[in-house]
Amino acid sequence: MVLIKIRYMTNKKTGNTVPKPLTHAMEDYLEAIFNLDQEKRVVRVKDIAKRLGVRMPTVTNMLKTLSKRELINYEKYEYLELTEDGRDIGREIHRRHCVLRSFLMDILDIDPAVADKEACKMEHAISSATLDRFIAFMEFVQLCPRVGTNWLDRFKEYRKKDKNGSKCLKHMKEFVDDFQEKIDAIEKRRVNHNGPH
Questions:
Q1: Which residues are registered as beta bridge partners of 19?
Q2: So what's the pLDDT on residue 168?
Q3: Best label site of 15, 67, 148, 154, fewest CB within 10 Å?
Q4: How far out from the chain centre does Cα 197 lie?
């Protein structure tokens, strides 16, 4: 887990160093540069502009800011690369985006295009600790025998038709019956293998 680092800047009037957090736009640029670097290995201004849907002069201005903060190495008209800190931040923002998009699509069944946009908005506001809880919840839902795919299907059904929970009771009874059948089958195998006691 990488914590997003806060840069410190010197206040010109007081001479004190004050925290200067990254803006959402800066995080978006670092994520875009990280992704482009993973895809192409060579990152150019026009690639960033295309990825983010902005004009090249806008990209150039942001690159100057990121360079001053020592998050990228950039010279005008040259390729650019992330510094170690820039790479760490870009990787973390990308990780947040992927986890949130997956949660929205796989757990809440939100349309992929909408999930992608919503994840982009959410990734800036969520802490690493909360994101780790999202991951743990998703793993639990996918691995725990009491939940899993069947549970997600029941959740979808609840969202669409069963606001009062009447079908939940029916499904609970089905679960108990199914569970009892599994216990009986295991007991029968044990008795057949070991003989009656």
A1: 8
A2: 64
A3: 15
A4: 53
Q: How far apart are CA 134 and CA 190, in angstroms?
A: 39
Q: What is the dihedral of CA 71, 76, 80, 82, to 10 degrees?
A: 0
- Residue 2: the pLDDT is 41
**3-class DSSP state of 135:** helix
And the tokens for 88?
Answer: 């760490």
Please state, in angstroms and rounded to a whole number, the distance separating the CA atoms of residues 133 and 99: 11
CB 66 within 8 A of CB 30: yes
Phi, psi of 75 (to 5 degrees): -125, 140
Specify whether the CB–CB gap between 66 and 29 falls below 8 A: yes
Q: At residue 110, what are phi and psi to the nearest 5 degrees?
A: -90, 145
In this prediction, residue 19 carries a pLDDT of: 56
Question: How far is the CA of 160 from the CAs of 14, 109, 146, 156, 163, in angstroms?
Answer: 59, 12, 22, 6, 8
Mean pLDDT by 10 residues, the chain (197 residues): 45 58 91 94 91 94 93 86 93 90 88 93 84 80 63 70 64 76 86 72
Structure tokens at 189: 């195998």
The reported pLDDT for the residue numbered 103 is: 87
